[in-house]
Amino acid sequence: EAQRVAIEERVAAVLLAGDVVDSDDGFLAAYGPLSQGVRRLVDAQIPVLAVSGNHDTRVLPRLADEIPELRFLGRDGRWESEVIERNGRPALRILGWSFPSKVVRNDPLDSLTAAQRDGRFEDGLDLPTVGLVHGDLDVSGSQYAPLSRANLENTKTIGWLPGHQHKPGDLGGERPIGYLGCVSGNDFGESGPRGPWIGTL
User: Fold this and answer.
1) Is the Cβ–Cβ distance between 127 and 86 less than 8 Å?
2) DSSP code per residue over 54-86
3) CA-based nearest residue to 92, from 174, 200, 10
4) Residues 81-113: pLDDT tens digits?
5) Nearest-CA neighbor of 53 among 141, 161, 128, 192?
6) Please, which residues bridge with residue 177 across strands?
7) DSSP percent split of the chain into helix, strand, coil, nearest 5
8) Which residues, at least 6 apart from 121, have a Cβ–Cβ distance to it below 8 Å?
9) Cα separation values, 164 from 30, 38, 55, Å
10) Beta strand 89-96 pairing with 80-86
11) How many Å apart are CA 134 and CA 150, to the nearest integer?
């Protein structure tokens, strides 16, 4: 369903914020559907960008190695950026970081360079930037990449899209900073709307 909507809406890109599988052990079960979905989007000329979370530190890098069209950002816990084009022109930059292991006790933003924090990149393009990262938002001491909202706000971005919590956050306002949430609830206590988000720039 999500791929169909993305194709019908002709979105500029599809972003995955990690934990697309429950565990690295789920590779065989997840590979087929995920591979098919990525290939459908790529065939429709829609870029797919992803960062890994604590549950798919091996699955997503391996998928990206097997499906070159899946752009995996932040391998080995190093920040990377990718420019998204619209109608043949640069339109948006995605800045991403991936879990290098199942446990990360430091804030990933501590490793951003001063230039990245200020919105200056080697390509020299002046583009709006969206951060794509996986971690625990405002949970100090977490072993799952504790993200400080103050650190996120102290960057020259138009928003941050963290993955990790199942329940979607509030992504309204001028500069959204909040969890994307899972596509579906994982237990009976997780009520409320679920599904992919569509952002407009």
Assistant:
1) no
2) TT-TTHHHHHHHH-TTEEE-SGGG--EEEEEEE
3) 200
4) 999 999 999 999 999 999 999 999 999 999 999
5) 161
6) 160
7) 25, 20, 55
8) 81, 93, 115
9) 18, 21, 9
10) antiparallel
11) 16
Residue closest to 152 by CA, chosen among 91, 78, 97: 97
Indicate if the alpha-carbon torsion angle 136, 140, 145, 148 is positive or negative: positive
Q: What is the pLDDT of residues 56-65, one digit of tens each?
A: 888 888 888 9
Q: Are 145 and 104 in contact (CB under 8 A)?
A: yes
Contacts 24+ apart (CB under 8 A), 165-168: 165/136, 165/137, 166/190, 167/192, 168/192, 168/193, 168/194, 168/197
Whole-number Cα distances in Å, 112 to 91, 115, 128, 138, 188: 22, 8, 17, 18, 38
29-59 pLDDT, tens digit per residue, is: 667 788 888 889 999 999 999 999 988 888 8
For the chain, the distance separating the N- and C-terminal CA atoms, rounded to the nearest angstrom, is 23
Tokens 């369903």, located at residue? 1
* Tokens 């604590």, located at residue: 54
Angle, CA 19 vertex, CA 4 and CA 112 arms, to 5°: 110
Average of per-residue pLDDT values in the chain: 88
| Under 8 Å between Cβ of 21 and 56 | yes
Which two structure tokens, joined as six digits, stand for 188? Answer: 């009976």
